[in-house]
Amino acid sequence: MVNVTAWLETRRVFVLVLALGLFAMAARGMTDPDAWWHLRTGQLITASHSVPHTDPYSYTRSGQPWVAHEWLSDVLIYNLYCVSGWGGLIVVFGVITAATLLLLFGRCAGRPYVAGAITVWAAFASLPFWGVRPLMLSLLLASIFLVILEHSDVHPNWLWWTPPLTMLWVNLHAEYALGIALLGLFLVGGTLDVAFGVETWAQMRPRLRKLAMVMAACVALVPLNPNGVGMYVYPFQTLHSRAMLQYIAEWASPNFHQGRFLAVLLMMLATTAGLGFMPRRVRPREMLLLLVMTAAALRSVRHIAIYVLVAAPILSRLVQALVEGRGRAWLDSARTRPFPGKTLVNAGLLAAILVFAVARPSYVARHQDEKEAENFPAAAVAFLEARRPPGPILNHYNWGGYFIWKLYPEYRVYIDGRADLYGDAFMEKFAATYYLTGGWRQELERWQIRTVVLPPAAPLVTALRAQPGWKQVYGDAQAVILVRNR
Fold first, then answer.
1. Residue 449 three-state SS
2. Which of 187, 239, 431, 465 has the fewest Cβ atoms within 10 angstroms?
3. pLDDT, tens only, 251-262
4. Structurally, how many domains does the chain consist of?
């Protein structure tokens, strides 16, 4: 018989409320510009039973080599959409995000209260990157890798789970390299632990040997994907793309003047302060990991979500040490203080958050069309479908994926979110055309652009309105369509 009173004990209710709350936070609509071409690619792969190796979507790179490194994620996203629509995608990726953070919670000291507070802090720090996107699968696998690596001191055989996970990861997302990097950092970190006297060489040698063997196995399994050995170099080509760092906000350094980066800024400051007061609470291996991930987060916004997976457990341990040192008496009195009706209050709180967690995905799914129209040129696409202005079309970078889902194959795009496909030189030419720098007319002539679909405030729109031969045929607050007369 289920003991209801035991399940409504405050600590358990806290963990359940945390899990349901994280899921409700993670239930988000489709706002990622790349989600749309992921859907289309999943459709192509499902229909053809093969992974494309050349670009099918654009006229500017048609037939050029393309590394579809997220092919398995694309298939998953498309088939989930076919089976359960937007609601299914929102629920599944909400569960993936919540699971990532619950694994983080399990790695934090001070469970459940201190760990819960730090986990919520980490959630707000990484919130801007959540959504229906393959990146969430990478973050889940990174969280699993960290659990395995941190427990490998006690359970060394857990390390053998990393090779099959790497084989899965390399087919889901190019950030599989993060898993191998974590293995390498723990290998170097173990050596630092010996050098600083945290452990003896006799204790560490068998662990490092197994870690090196596992890392070699993971590296050897990388070619087991449709792109073969090319996946060895692909992640590094992306990281060193000059145009991506310059023009794509997610790859740029965080601008701490923006409110969305406040939570991660405070986490960095709090962790630094904690290390200053209690440096011996963190072993050299953890310090190495924290420094590397902090540098990565400061270099690119995209790496903030990985940073919090490393920093939050360290910060939690520092906070827990502070609480135990100065707040022990208060905590002891709080635990023993009687509270009449506690079980009833806990039941009501749990019921309320459960109702909210169930209702939230349904609400988000029902309003997906509104979210789509708010973030993408839905009305302009409807005009293109109805009026069929002549191609080729020059489109905004963030709208390329949306056009691929809505208009392909009737229209092919000029550019989309696959920046690695287009390359630095092309991205810079697009930026020159968009911002009217240099020979901005050259690209229009080179590709014989007949129709332009851009935001109303785009400098190119202002210039073309004043050019003879160009006529605006559609406009709203989201997009303007101009057509060139011949």
1. coil
2. 465
3. 888 999 999 999
4. 2
